[in-house]
Design brief:
The chain is an alpha+beta fold. The chain has helices at 12-21, 61-65, 70-78; strands at 30-31, 37-41, 47-51, 56-57. It has one domain (12-86). A four-stranded antiparallel sheet has the order 1-2-3-4. Pfam families: SWIM.
């Protein structure tokens, strides 16, 4: 479980399946200028930049809530890391 105290619980396997259904192309994750900035393409013409050093995503959800957004969770999962370590307290 990603966030055991959350009202809605999600596991990475289900998140990944939902991303695939929604049109996310995980194979299209591209490493940008540095090793911790990623471009996530999700559907036609929809892109977001995830920065794991700054704990930030261009969708601004992570910035506002302190909890990694769905774009960040995909990148974190692909790096074989745990999203819990990226939650701001």
């Amino acid at each position: 479980m990603l966030f055991p105290n959350a009202k809605t619980r999600h596991c990475v396997r289900h998140l990944h399946a939902n991303f695939k259904k929604a049109g996310f192309q995980t194979k299209e994750l591209k490493d940008l200028a540095s090793g911790d900035r990623y471009q996530v393409e999700c559907g036609l013409g929809s892109q977001h930049v995830v920065d794991l050093v700054e704990d930030s995503c261009s969708c601004k959800n992570w910035d506002l809530t302190g909890i990694p957004c769905m774009h960040a969770v995909v990148v974190i999962h692909l790096k074989d890391e745990y999203p819990e370590t990226y939650v701001k307290t």
